[in-house]
Amino acid sequence: MHSFQNKVIVITGAASGIGRALAQAFHQRGAHLALSDINMQGLEETRSLLSGQGQVTLDVLNVADRAAFSAYAKKVVDDHGQVDVVINNAGVALSETISNMSYDDMEWIVNINFWGVVQGTKEFLPHLLQRPEAAIVNVSSIFGIIALPTQGAYNATKFAVRGFTECLRQELKNSSVFVTTVHPGGIKTNIVRNGRMKTSMTGDKSLDEQAKDFEKMARTTPAQAAETIIRGLERRQRRILIGGDARLMDRLQRLMPVRYSDVFGWVLKKLG
């Protein structure tokens, strides 16, 4: 997809972070936007930062709610007349050991991070297939490629997004819909502060301490992440790695598919 002029772009989780940056970048390129989040105030702030001329609609959406997602997809088509790109970006974080993790926490993150992607894909896919050129962009994580302690639930959802999306890509290879999986590394967003961070990878730390540690390690800005995603769409990259840390971890996992955990264990010990 080489031009986004007059394309209708659906972005979930658009009230902040990568979702907001994507909205800004696409709007500057002449796209129309259907933005959703659970936070309407954040969506309004996103709209205030847009500098393009395209139509923008804002909707409160809980991506874990299947009925709400179905109604939302119909509303987007009614509002815009078409859908060209769907970016399933909404996601949350959970840090806890598997032995201590509650079923409630597990269901919470699975419903948002995985079912939100499934529902965003399935509800919009019939509309995308009607377009001469379309795309589905599902945001996984570098934690959809490697696994680390206390990230069992998050790993499970992001590995699931990766598997689901790579299967979908193969199923749609002869269609007009391009499919890609995005694997961000550390991005300067509020995902840690807004998550359920109960046990730290690097020891017994408060939420504020964990957030500060994350902010130190996160080297990539949301704007940089958005530009990488758009460049990946333009180049039809089937896997989009964001940040030097993501590329490094991906290479390490390829070189040491089992023993990479020993390397990260040593790093985490030093950080603790």
Task: Write structural notes for this entry.
Helix 2 (40-48) links the parallel strand 2 and strand 3. The chain has one domain: Rossmann fold, CATH 3.40.50.720. By secondary structure, it is of the alpha/beta class. The N and C termini lie far apart (44 Å). A seven-stranded parallel beta sheet has the order 3-2-1-4-6-7-9, with helices on both faces. The protein has a two-stranded parallel sheet with strand order 5-8. Helix 1 (17-28) packs across helix 7 (222-234) and helix 3 (66-80) runs parallel beside helix 4. It contains nine helices and nine strands. The longest helix has 26 residues, at 103-128. The model has no long low-confidence stretch (mean pLDDT 90). The chain has helices at residues 17-28, 40-48, 66-80, 103-128, 152-171, 207-217, 222-234, 244-255, 260-271, and strands at 8-11, 32-37, 56-60, 85-88, 94-95, 134-139, 177-184, 196-197, 239-242. Belongs to the short-chain dehydrogenases/reductases (SDR) family. It holds the Pfam family adh_short. Keywords: Oxidoreductase. Residues 7-190 form the Ketoreductase domain. This is SDR family NAD(P)-dependent oxidoreductase.
Enumerate the strands of the largest sheet in spatial order, edge to edge or round the barrel. 3-2-1-4-6-7-9
CATH architecture: 3-Layer(aba) Sandwich
Strand content: 15-25%
The H-level CATH homologous superfamily, spelled out, is: NAD(P)-binding Rossmann-like Domain
Parts with pLDDT < 50 across at least 5 consecutive residues: none
CATH topology call: Rossmann fold
Number of domains: 1
**N-to-C order of helices and strands:** EHEHEHEEHEHEEHHEHH
Structural class: alpha/beta
**CATH class designation:** Alpha Beta
Number of helices: 9
- Mean of residue pLDDT values: 90
Radius of gyration (Å): 18 Å
